[in-house]
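Reviewers asked in the last cycle whether our approach scales beyond single polypeptides. To address this, we selected a multi-component target totalling 736 residues and predicted its structure end to end. The input consisted of the following lines:
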Amino acid sequence: MRTSRRIVRVFAKGNVDVRDSLLWSRIGGVLEWNGINEVIRARHPGALAKIKHETCTRLDLIPLPGEVSPLEPPEEIARRLPSGAHPIERQQRTALFDEPANVVVFSLQSAATNALVRHRRDGWLLLPDDFESWNSESRSFLESECEYAGLAPIEATMERLAQLIAAVEERLGAHVLVYNLSPLTPGERIHCWLGAEDSIALRVQRFNLRLAELSAQLGFSIVDVDRIVACAGADRLKVDLLHLTAEGWRLVAEEVARILDERGCFDAETAG
Amino acid sequence: MTKLTMPELSATPARLRRSGLRWLRRSGDIIEARAPIAFCYVRLSDPRSSDRPLPLREEQNDLQVVLAPSDACKITYSEGLSKGGYQDMVESGDWRSGEYVADAESLHGSGILLPLVLAGRRGFENGEGRGTLLAGWHEKVRGFWEGEGTGRFGTVLALGTCEQTAIFRGEDTAFLSWFARAPGPAQLVAVSDERCVHSSAVLLQHLRRTPDEARAITDAVYSWIGERIGRTDSSCFPAFQPGSARGTLHGRWPESQDILFAMHLLAEAVAASPILERSEVITGGGIVELNAPDAVALTLGSEFAPHFRHRRTDWIIALHGFRFGLYIGANFTEWLRRDFEPLTRTVADSQRDLAALAGEVKARTGAALLVQNLIASTAAERISNYSWLGDAFDASVAVIGNEANLMLSDLTRHHNIAVIDSDALAAELGVKHCPDRFHAARELVEAQRDEMHRVLREFSIPGF
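The resulting structure, written as structure tokens, was:
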């Protein structure tokens, strides 16, 4: 009897938080953190996480199996406009359900922070990623044809997340982990919201609370980035609202590994 | 070399008398600006024995003046200036402005020392506790200073729990951190939560209390005390039982603690609300009467302390859970069980009461509420799957803390309320600075104090 190499297939649907913690974190071309397998190797020699990463334009735009979003921009627009890290033709699509996975990772980050634009006439939506680098022609097009569509509504996002989790469990039988977000922006201090809209920090707190409620209902695991940052201190772990230091990403990866352990993902499979 | 001298302080027409000086620093020490070097006890006396009430009469037994140079310097003094012993604790001479105290090297500003006056109102007037700054148990303490500022005094009242004691009174328990940073004229008032926790429900009811309601509460307490006395028999005095004849560990009469605690609760409930209390301050120009506080600092943690409502009178009290057993005896607890009902408070209840309190305070005195939020994260509570909590989900600290903090932020949109975001400060520095979510280490307390000061300045509270 021998113990086989345990491979945990992880589909990670998210942006900088899931990528930098699970895969790698590079700053100025220098590798600062080499991903979750650093943790897994130490804890479970012979085990390995195979990570498939896909960026996430917005949690509420991820289609369910067989669903085609009616709000996708036409192909011609996708070809014409710059894309950044979020290719326009893929913004409302996913390979999530195309291959088997043991674990699916989502994150609240896109829902909390990504604002979309809507085509005035046709109603399609897109994320103008890295807009500052767009050429003047593309900018003019966007400004004349589109309007601000805002951030994701919390309830609609949570409804979509619940549907996605149900679909993942049914189609893939995979464990679901969802990253919450640390609301802190270093140096930001607000004591009164009179006449003000929610700050990102306040919005993140609302999302985090709703995520805990959804976890209580559905039983998925939360990667509590908020708590990880609070325990060690944002002064030490945070660079800005979305980016952590290498130590921060390592701590997040350790928490993911701990949850995978808790879920029995590294339990040895035996073969004759 | 500059001579450091006693500042002008006057209580005219009353006389201001003082004890000898007790040094807080050694001769030869380098002193920072506004860092205390000495203090003395003071007392007012009216030579004319007029019918006019003596100012600060409820604080006469614990009035102290702390002295500090206005700028950094090196001090040297003669040991003979302090007589030591009880001479430095009881008043023995008149306050003399301009009296020589010490010499200062490298002092750039004036040699006149800045006074910080400390006043403690004892919970039990006979409870002597002299010796250090604001020593002993006080139901209310104040620190006020004219400083070098001009204009009217601004007053901030702290009604929160222990985490706010740390922010306002500080490690020295005498407001020295604020004296060092707020130019003045300014006053800080702190009312402790040893008797009743100052939740919005408790404070609101206190503000709206009528004389008839005060009478009914008094009757209820007297009635229970009468009942206790009625039940007293010879077995209630362990100090005099045969087994104690040659020595005993039963030092205290056990019954006294329950009755005293009930009396203290009553005394607070039927006295003036601290939110409405005016105050008198001693200044260089004489006694000045100040209006009710300009800002009231509360803690969100008070909202979720155990609350009880007296069944017959509707009197609401809030007590820290940790006080049962160690502080509050079995007889009092039995009275709570019999005559009170537990009041389970939700975040929505707190929202309703805080909003009503803000409205009531604004209408009565115009003061703003500064509410310190909850530190929601703990190193101890790691929950990755909330479904495992089952029915305990709604009561989990992480959930209630975050819900309450969001509620508080939302209240600031419509009410005269500001948030002191302790949660964010703790998360910035790391919650290891506050492992139990309430008792913070120095670095976090300092950050909270900075934030409180920033908000007071944003609210243009005079003197801060």
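The longest strand of chain A covers residues 6-13. We regard this as preliminary and will revisit it once experimental data from Aim 1 are available.
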